[in-house]
Amino acid sequence: xxxxxKGRKHRATSGVDxxxxxxxxxxxxxxxxxxxxxxxxEKLSHGEPTWxxxxxxxxxxxxxxxxxxxxxxxxxxQPFGAVAALVCExxxxxxxxxxxxxxxxxxxxxxxxx
Length: 114
What we know:
The chain is of the alpha+beta class. It has helices at residues 21-35, 80-94, 97-107; strands at 40-45, 48-53, 57-64, 72-75. A 4-stranded antiparallel β-sheet has the order 1-2-3-4, covered by helices on one side.
C-alpha cells in the first residue's frame, strides 16, 4: 500500500471513520458476535479491542485504521483455506450472475455454505 505524503493523513473511504457512528455500530456488532461465544473475554491489546477464548488465545482483533490506513478490519487467526473460502464467498455475493456462473464453473464447485 502506498504511503501517504508526509504530513497528509489518510481519509477513510469505507464510510467507517474512526470515532464515527458507523464505526461504533461496526464495533458493537463485532463485540456482540464475539461476546456471545463461551468464555470470551474482551481486552485492549495494542490499543485495539481484542477478544480472547477463555484464558488465553486471541480469536479476533479489531484493526481500526492501523497506522493511518483508510479502513477498519478484523484480524482472525485462520488457516489460508478458511480465508480463501471467505474471499470466494465475498466475491460470489457481489458478482453479477454471469461472473458468478463463470467463477463456479472455473472452480468446479458449488457455492460455499454460509
